[in-house]
Amino acid sequence: MLARVIRIAVVVGLLSLVMTLALAFRRDPHDIRTGTIGKPAPAFTLQRLDGSGEVALADLSGKVVVVNFFASWCLPCIQENPALVRVYERYRASDVVMLGVDFQESRENGLAYVQRMGTAWTTVADDDGRVALSYGVFGPPETFFIGPDGVIAGRHIGPIDEATLVNGIETLRARAAR
Amino acid sequence: MSAGDLGAAALRAALFLSLWGTGAAIYAAWRRDTRALASARIAAGVGFGLVVVAALSMMFALATHDFSILYVAENNARETPLFYSIISLWAALEGSILLWTAILAGATAFIAFRGTLTIPRLATTALAVMFAMLTFFLLLITTPAADPFARLAIAPVNGNGPNALLQNHPLMALHPPLLYLGYVLTSVPFAYAIASLILGEGGDRWLVATRRFALVSWALLGVGIVAGAWWSYAVLGWGGYWAWDPVENAAIMPWLTSTAYLHSVMVEEKRSLLRTWNLALVVATFALTILGTFLTRSGVVNSVHSFSLSAIGPLLLGYLVAILVLSVGLLLWRSARLRDAGPIGTPLSREAIFLFQNVLFMAATLTVLLGTLYPLVAEAISGAQLSIGGPYFDRVEIPLALALLFLMGVGPQLPWHGASRATLERQFTTPIVAAASGASAALLTGTTALAAVLTYALGAFVIATVVQEFARGVRARRTLHGESGLAAFSNLLRRSGRRYGGYVVHLGIVLVALAVATSQARTVDAEKTLAAGEAFQVAGYTVRLEALRAVSEPQRDSVVADLVISGNGASTNLRPALVQYPNSASAVGSPGIGAGLRDDLYTILAAYDQRTFSWATIRTRVIPGVSWLWLGGAVVGIGAVIAALPPPRRRAVRMPVAEAAASAK
User: How would residue B44 be classed by pLDDT, with cut points 50, 70 and 90?
Assistant: First the structure.
């Protein structure tokens, strides 16, 4: 009798262990709840990487803004670059603005990188990393979706793919059109 | 052909051989076919060679900075020194699994060539199990899930460089391979246990065949854990060595069940008891190594640190489930045949102490597992993200550890089958006196924390039992063989290595326990902001800031504080630094440590004047007895070596047989 109880207990225990582990996959490790989503995007004014003036987030209000934090030494940034290029080409004539924020490195390296990668969208330099800090960036690459109302609607940690980018943008455009 | 192509091709060829070997070994075991066994042997040998070639190609690619390989680009940079380039083989997931596979292939080849000589059918079945596991790992590293040789379409000009924490201390060369060796070698007893269950052999032959493997994997895990604690102490700059981090828990859990097994296996050998239990412990140890790998590599816990999410999580979980289903199923199916030879009997016997000890080890394992998994359960149920901190583990594990320390003294003093009153008095008088003096020594030196005082008392208790055992053994040899004291001592270690090596291990564990208790109870902290030339006092040491300087190296930039230490008989220079690696968002603190047998002076450069270098904030910890922790780890390792070495007597027996065979020809 006791042996039977032990057997059942062992099987039930192991089953619940496996269940717990399997359930853990439902959570997305990229989904880190820092409370930025749903909050107004922190304002910033940053110099363009090529030194040709400044860009202020406030000037872009009323548009869908995709802010992509990157650095030249960051490999996942190189990996996600083709997706960014395709999405940029797709929306370049629309009210969607893509903004690359270079941080954690020198400006020369950043500029050399965007020239090498053929980055055509606006890139700015976050020299002292304050903007990245205000957005709670863990590390490059990280992408934020900001709606026409200036509120952060989405966030993606790590390299992003084309589908996620398009999905993020279209959700915001649909919301704006309503 | 580049090194990357060579490595990738070698792995694919090894996968083919491993699949072949699985089939050949199954056929050889089933039909007792010697030709199939010979073919499986060749597959194992060549397969091992190929995986080694793959691992060496990866090291070569790292050393030559071949950034067309994604792994190299992610974990290496032109500036990375050669030493750290090479050991970057285990700096990240894909390389670690490659190393893991290489060790597993080595163990498979060992069983194929050596194991199958003594007990062919059991070992051949175990070989099939090993091949099956090897096939899984080779599948992992030849598919995109964890392909170490995956290519980048555009090779970057320079790579990312290894994780800052992994290129800051040479211990990184030692700690992961030791742990992986320990992890992987647990698969050998597991394979034999499964083979024994499949064949329905009720006997204990699997256990004799794998005793040494179990001991060696246990020792490597233990020494690897201590090396990891040392690395954490010397690199992370927080002045501690253990934080109940999921990665640490993943390593300690199989070590706990493996320790339980090393003891309960003696009960099976001496009294033919606990047969199912021992099989279950072997299975649990192996399953926990896979669970640990899953937890730390799949990104389900510790998510903030694991951005590179790969498909490896579900695959590892599937592997774990397959192992659990297979082994638990076999255990339940065969348990009727695994009848014990009788009940345990009186609680005052060695076998009963082993049983209590096993229960405590299981409790420790399960509570660590619970603490590690609880955040997952909580998030699945309530959606809240939380983490279980040190206080839970300290509260639960310290009493268990103290109880185990007590049993460690009691067990060896009790005879098998039960003790008489006279035996008890003879065995325990000295140890109890020692325990009382241990407690008084603690109180007299100003240690008042209950856990620490108990650790001193129980530590003295165990030391007394070990000394008593050695004294008795030496005395017995002197009267029986007329040996000198020293000869008798070394003969004890050589001829009864398993027993006396075990006592040496017990001493090592006591050292570890005393070090933990002392350092936890009596650490002194101080922090001071100094201008150059100024000094301050902490626990008898004088810490003077000579200068603050910037040091530039190709792979990193550092700010170093030159400290001159005096007092307590010390006269030394320490150089705590803040190191900035180009790929790291924040500077890494590199502590300056003045190590000593009495205490360590641990210094950290916490902050400094970034403009003129005119001041620095120095954080210091005076940590007594922490060196004993590393020493204890070394003693455990030495004891395990003594226990694992074959006694000379056995060779003497084998020789005449070999000669007889030779003369018969």
Answer: very high
CB contact (8 A) between residue B380 and residue A20: yes
User: From CA B121, how far away is CA B80, in angstroms rounded?
Assistant: 49
At B590 the pLDDT is 87
The pLDDT score that the predictor gives to residue B585 is 59
At CB < 8 Å, which residues of chain B contact A?
Answer: 70, 73-74, 152, 154, 156, 158-161, 294, 298-301, 303-304, 306-309, 313-314, 317, 320-321, 324, 328, 332, 373, 376-377, 379-380, 385, 582-583, 585
**Torsion (CA) B623, B625, B626, B627 in degrees, nearest 10:** 130
DSSP string, B55-101: HHHHHHHHHTT-TTBHHHHHH--TTS-HHHHHHGGGSSHHHHHHHHH
CA distance B327 to B329: 5
DSSP state of B539: T
Q: How confident is the model at residue B584 (pLDDT cuts 50, 70, 90)?
A: low
Q: Which of A54, A79, A53, A58 is nearest to A68 (CA)?
A: A79
Report CA torsion sign: B226, B232, B235, B238. negative
Say whether residue A16 is in contact with chain B using an 8 A CB cutoff: no
Q: State yes or no: ipTM above 0.85.
A: no
- How far apart are the C-alpha atoms of B210 and B202, rounded to whole Å? 16
Residue A42 pLDDT greater than 60, yes or no: yes
Q: How many CA atoms lie less than 13 Å away from B99 in the CB half-sphere?
A: 21
Give residue-wise pLDDT tens across range A147-159.
998 899 888 888 8
Beta bridge partners of A100: A68, A123
- In B192-261, the DSSP E strands lie at none
Percent of chain B past pLDDT 70, that is, above it, reads 93
Half-sphere exposure of B135 (CA within 13 A, CB side): 15
CA pair distance B513, B534, nearest whole angstrom: 38
Could you tell me which chain A residue has the CA closest to the CA of B313?
A: A25
Q: What values do phi and psi take at B502, rounded to 5?
A: -60, -40
Residue B93 has a CB neighbour count (10 Å cut-off) of 24
CA distances to A131, A157, A176 from A46, in Å: 9, 22, 26
What is residue B483's three-state secondary structure? coil
The whole-angstrom distance between residue A178's C-alpha and the CA centroid of its chain comes to 25
Per mean pLDDT, which of A7-11, B384-388, B389-393 is the most reliable? A7-11
Exposure of B323 in the CB half-sphere (CA atoms within 13 A) = 27
Looking at residue A32, its pLDDT comes to 53
Q: What percent of chain B has pLDDT over 90?
A: 50
- How far B193 CA lies from chain A's nearest CA (Å)? 19
Interface contact B317-A10, CB threshold 8 A? no
CB contact under 8 A, A73 and B373: no
Q: Which residues pair with B542 in a beta bridge?
A: B537, B566
DSSP per-residue string spanning B140-175: HHHSTTS-TTPBPSS--SS---S-GGGGS-GGGGTH
Tell me what the pLDDT averaged over chain B comes to.
87
Distance in angstroms (rounded) separating the CA atoms of residues A114 and A124 = 11
Q: Do A18 and B300 touch (CB under 8 A)?
A: no
Q: What is the pLDDT of residue B306?
A: 46
Nearest to B181 by CA among B235, B140, B220: B220
- And the tokens for B147? 């392909």
Q: Would you tell me how many other CB atoms lie within 10 Å of the CB of residue B600?
A: 22
Say if A14 is an interface residue toward chain B (CB within 8 Å).
yes
- Angle separating helix axes B3-31 and B120-142, nearest 10 degrees: 150
CB proximity list for B261: less than 8 A, separation 6 or greater? B214, B278, B281, B282, B285
Per the DSSP assignment, residues forming a β-bridge with B604 are: B619
